[in-house]
Amino acid sequence: MRHYEDEGLIVPGRFGNGFRDYCQSTIDRVLVIRSLLESGLPVRLIRDALPSLTDGSHAGADAVGAEFLHEVQSHRDRLAARIAVLRDQQAALDAYLREARRTDL
């Protein structure tokens, strides 16, 4: 939770003694953050889109939502390109290993 606070993703309340107060809305926000992080989205993108995803209002959400979806699609496309390169590298290594094992016999 402190990491999310340090990243500017949450702003917890404070009790009189200075301890953090994680209310239910903050906990709900953390669940959204975790889900997006587990999907591989960068913190920068999450930070930019988070207000429209968690504030409960829909004012301006369509414009921000469209931009967010465009960014997510771009991130997904870059990820797919990296996966394709890794698959090609894996296939090349598999071919090398098959050939090396065949010549060892």
UniProtKB/TrEMBL annotation:
Keywords of the record, alphabetical order, are:
DNA-binding
Asked if the keyword Thylakoid belongs to this entry, the reply reads no
InterPro entries, alphabetically? DNA-bd_dom_put_sf, MerR-type_HTH_dom, MerR_fam
The chain positions of domain HTH merR-type read 1-52
**Stored Pfam families:** MerR_1
Keyword rRNA-binding in the entry? The reply is: no
Question: What protein name is recorded for this chain?
Answer: MerR family transcriptional regulator
Organism of origin is Streptomyces luteosporeus
